[in-house]
Amino acid sequence: QVQLVESGGGLVQAGGSLRLSCAASGSIFSISAMGWYRQAPGKQRELVAAITSGNNTNYADSVKGRFTISRDNAKNTVYLQMNSLKPEDTAVYYCNTDPGPEDLDYWGQGTQVTVSS
Predict the structure, then answer these.
(1) Residue 102 CB contacts under 8 Å (≥ 6 apart), including other chains
(2) What's the Cα-to-Cα distance from 72 to each of 5, 76, 108, rounded to whole Å?
(3) Mean pLDDT of 41-54
């Protein structure tokens, strides 16, 4: 099982940028598809970006063209570069395998992103 620690969140004005990082442990990282998810208050967790072991990427329509997911297998790290942030991007951001586990025990603490208007 991959263990995950997210970082890089914060408070930013609309139009600004943030870069999230996810440090993963576990020998299966390099062969795992990984994703960045987010959960806003009162809403379900949603997948916003995913990357395969072969670096193929996919994005939710709401972030396409603004967010970029990448990975460094040598560092067991996944990144999410977020540009042109909007208030509706405000959420707790998590990383995990794609698809993500149903068991909440296998999710990290996430990192809070708050975008002010």
Answers:
(1) none
(2) 15, 6, 19
(3) 96
> Considering only CA atoms, which of 102, 113, 111, 95 is closest in space to residue 25?
95
Diameter of the chain measured on Cα atoms = 41
- Tabulate helix, strand, coil % of the chain (nearest 5): 10, 50, 40
Confidence category of residue 28, pLDDT binned at 50, 70, 90 = confident
Structural Rg of the chain based on CA atoms: 13
Cβ-contact 115, 67 below 8 angstroms: no
Contact 43, 56 (CB under 8 A): no
| Phi–psi pair at 66, nearest 5 degrees | -115, -35
Q: Percentage of the chain surpassing pLDDT 70?
A: 98
pLDDT level of residue 29 (50, 70, 90 thresholds): confident
Question: If 0-12 CB within 10 Å is exposed, 13-18 middle and 19+ buried, where does residue 33 land?
Answer: middle
